[in-house]
Amino acid sequence: MSDSVRAAADCEAGDDSGAKAILHLLDIVSRQIAHHHDALWQEEKHYTWWVYIVFAALLAIFLQVKDPLAMYSLLCAVSAFGMIVSLVGYAVIRKEGEHFWKAMGKRNELMDLLRKDEPKLPSVWGLYINRMKDANKSLIDLLRSVLISRDAGIRDYFQFVFIVCAICAGIISLFSLRALIRVALQ
Predict the structure, then answer these.
(1) Distances from the Cα of 153 to the Cα of 47, 130, 133, 160, angstroms
(2) What is the model's pTM?
(3) Cβ burial, residue 98 (10 Å; 0-12/13-18/19+)
(4) Which of 32, 45, 73, 123 is the most exposed place for a label (fewest CB within 10 A)?
């Protein structure tokens, strides 16, 4: 339980100032949730655009650049940049997802405090707690949920796209580097 939630809990349930403090904290946490939700979408959108631009550039370089030394140099550099962008996008979305679910957890704690005399709704809160734990799946669980069980969320699919793009860009970079070395040694 966070310090602000603990401070609100210290107020007596019947105390009007305690309820006001909890409502004030709920307002703050609700704004945090909205902020993190919006940030997630913006980050998913912008990093995906970067990936599209990188792969379009790779295709254009492959089709348009006739000098092998220049082509392989550009392919190697742009694909390495694409791999970095994909990995950063993956990490940023995972971190923002953690912040989002932490804010959801705070909200649930505050709601429980506000509803002290009413029974808790374990099925609803349990859902949030389970989702919070699954906000960032391990790589194996992510692949399993996207490819096999098909129970992945939207954020999981974005993470999957970034991982696949990082792998593809890394492979292109390695093959381009190998070809660049061959061309340079001739």
Answers:
(1) 18, 13, 13, 11
(2) 0.77
(3) middle
(4) 123
